[in-house]
Amino acid sequence: MTAAFFPGLMSAAESATEPGLLKGPLHDLHARLGARFVGFGGFEMPVQYSSIKEEHEAVRTHVGLFDVSHMSNLRIEGPGAEALLSRTTVSDAAKLKVGRGVYTAVLRDDGTILDDTIFYRMADDSFYLVPNAGLNEAVRAALEAHADDVEGDVTVTDVSRATCIFALQGPDAPAVLKAAGADVPDTPPFRIHEAQVDGAVCQVATTGYTGETGYELFVSEERGPEVFEALLDAGKVHGIEPVGLGARDTLRLEMGFALAGNEFEGGRTPLEAGLGWAVKWDHDFVGKEALVRQKETDDHDRLVGLELSGRGIARHGYAVLDGSGQQVGIVTSGTLSPSLDTAIALAYVRPGQAAPGTEVAVDVRGRPVAATVAKTPFLKRS
Fold it and tell me: 110 and 53 in one domain?
């Protein structure tokens, strides 16, 4: 796969003149590392450094380092913080212990997803929530709109531009983090602890977007560049590679992970998006009534995996067809899997076409390409 996969790809020189896009705190460092840039979530972001395939394979076989500082960051603090998060997400924050995180979603009143996100409990009355890129203001507004619904004072503080986030992912990620001087406890996913890298205090979470062992590190904007370089230096013996958005996309697609701007486009609910497992039904939350009605009728689209057997790549917006050529769904994301050497995709289809093994087709520029509904993740991990 080449960078041509991404429309609007810019060289480092060209990106300097692109109007309206924000530059992250590591922009100059990425340029020195040879990054090519693309606009994403309102930012100029590295799409690749060497090649998407090489960076993808680095994460799957040893280790890669991502700058995901375009993601948003909110602090929710005060006696009412727990109740506010329980009210505005599909998770019950009361069940979350200090030092743990949970994958969740913020819904609109009609049950559709405003954003999928993770929040961590940092202390009894302190939480840290990570919305997707460009959604910090919308999510903050959604939370603050319900602050009067709960007892106890609560503040929502946007620290997005004061924070860097790095994802260290791959089988050798623990060894690299240890070599960088950080404490590496043997903890399961969705835990968070404090550690130091190159003297900088970081919050280290056992989360990621690749399906591999790894961490996400939260550090101040001021210390971000030196922490990123310290991790690269510590990982040299392990063949670490800086990784851009291109490989991030192929890695997440192999695992069947949703992307906010694709899989939730147009107003999708957790039940449609295959996220029903994340909904805790035993508490009241915004959008619950609409979601209960949808659950009862059960006549809604399903997000499924597709494996293409014919030549062609399923792209965002391509139609999914049944055996008679009628449209029964739409592709949300698609790529050629570097690990499987197979074209894969995520798509919404009608209930009758959602069972694994169902034969469908994807309209690739006017040509039907045979495909089969497949279970995700596409890449099975041992």
Answer: no
CATH number at residue 18: 3.30.1360.120
Phi, psi of 175 (to 5 degrees): -65, -40
Name the residue among 66, 63, 27, 67 with its Cα closest to residue 44.
Answer: 27
Domain contains 336:
no
Q: Which residues pair with 374 in a beta bridge?
A: 305
What span, in angstroms and rounded, lies between the C-alpha atoms of 380 and 382? Answer: 7
pLDDT band at 18 (very low <50, low <70, confident <90, very high): low
Residue 34's pLDDT is what? 97
Q: Are residues 111 and 150 in the same domain?
A: yes
Tokens of 22: 């924000």
- 19 pLDDT band, cuts 50/70/90, is low
Domain boundary among 158, 183, 211: 158
In whole angstroms, what is the distance from residue 40 CA to residue 22 CA? Answer: 10
Length of the chain: 382
Tell me the C-alpha to C-alpha distance, in Å, between residue 101 and each of 79, 97, 205, 249, 302: 19, 8, 8, 23, 27
For residue range 187-246, list pLDDT tens digits in order. Answer: 899 999 999 999 999 999 999 999 999 999 999 999 999 999 999 999 999 999 999 999
What are the pLDDT digits (tens) for 249-272? Answer: 999 999 999 999 899 998 999 999
Residue 1 has pLDDT above 70, yes or no: no
Is 231:165 a contact under the CB 8 Å cutoff?
no
Considering only CA atoms, which of 122, 93, 125 is closest in space to residue 106? 93
100 shares its domain with 27: no
Burial of 175 (0-12, 13-18, 19+ CB in 10 A): middle
- Residues 166, 33 share a domain: yes
Mean pLDDT of the residues in the chain: 94
pTM: 0.93
Angstrom distance (rounded) from CA 234 to CA 177:
8
pLDDT score of 133: 92
Structural domain ending residue among the three candidates 125, 158, 191: 158
Query: What is the total count of domains within the chain?
Result: 2
In angstroms, how far is the first alpha carbon of the chain from the final one? Answer: 26
Range of the domain at 57: 3-71+162-254
| Whether residues 87 and 121 fall in one domain | yes
Where residue 125 sits, what CATH number does that domain have?
A: 3.30.70.1400
